[in-house]
Amino acid sequence: MSRLPLRVAIEGPCCAGKTTLGRGLEQELQPLRTAYIMDYYEYTRGGGFFPRPIPGSAAEAEDALRWLLNVEERRTAQARAAENQLDVILIDRSIHTLLAHRYALKKVGKFNDFQSAQDLIDSSVIPLWPDVIMYLDMPQNLVHQRNNGKFEPDNIFIDADFNQGIRTYFQRFAGVPHHRIAWLDAANSIVMIRAIVNMHIGSLVSQLDNEKEVR
After folding, report:
1. Where do the domains of the chain lie, and which CATH numbers do they carry?
2. How far apart are the first and last CA of the chain?
3. Strand pairing report for 88-92 and 180-185
């Protein structure tokens, strides 16, 4: 992490409050110059043609990933074009979401193409990789409580083992120097969470500003 803007990914299971947090921070981080990148599903206006969460074949899995990379390119284009004028880019579900999804599918035995997905994404110049990840963590009972009919009971996105797989993907980054990750309790009020994240981001932006002045 050696330049501005600071790229901040907001990650976590479905119903954790990622979009609510991101939208609120977009306003609260002023006077920092901030851009907000919508998540993949919202960017495609509620899905449209959205890949099935569990691919039926290797070919379908690759096609789905290439389609999502195309969405990644389009949803990040405006922020990339304005990078020189920004302090912070908030990313509602980063490219790590795509990898975490395939990692979790592997963990629950639904589909195993994680290494192929990793290779395809790593070889692409499209992803906007974050500098820091804010992970909204919450217990499974809260996932079901907040779901409130959004997903059917048997949907993979509210499956306990699948969500544990998502968590495990991000847990691997703990203590890795080039993967800064902050764990946030999504059961807390959104006001408290925003205050914590605001503090994290402000500190990191100040650090980058100081490093820039030294150079």
Report:
1. 6-214 (3.40.50.300)
2. 14
3. unpaired
Contacts of 149 (CB under 8 A, 6+ apart): none
Phi first, then psi: give them for residue 21, nearest 5 degrees.
Answer: -65, -50
Per the CB < 8 A criterion, the answer to whether 93 and 16 are in contact is no
Q: Whole-prediction pTM value?
A: 0.93
Cα separation, 92 vs 12, whole angstroms? 10
Query: What single string gives the DSSP state of each residue in the chain?
Result: --SSSEEEEEE-STTS-HHHHHHHHHHHTTTS-EEEE--HHHHTTS-SS---SS-SSHHHHHHHHHHHHHHHHHHHHHHHHTGGG-SEEEEES-HHHHHHHHHHHHHTTS---HHHHHHHHHT-S-----SEEEEEE--HHHHHHHHTTSS-TT-GGG-HHHHHHHHHHHHTTTT-TT-EEEEEETTS-HHHHHHHHHHHHHHHHHHHHHHHHH-
Q: Summarize pLDDT for 143-188 with one digit per residue, the tens.
A: 999 988 888 989 999 999 999 999 999 999 877 766 789 999 999 9
Cis peptide leading into residue 53 (ω within 30°): no
On whether the CB atoms of residues 187 and 138 are closer than 8 A, the answer is: yes
Q: Give 117's Cβ-side CA count (13 Å radius).
A: 26
- How many whole angstroms separate alpha carbon 55 and alpha carbon 193? 34
Distance (Å, whole) CA 149 – CA 88: 34
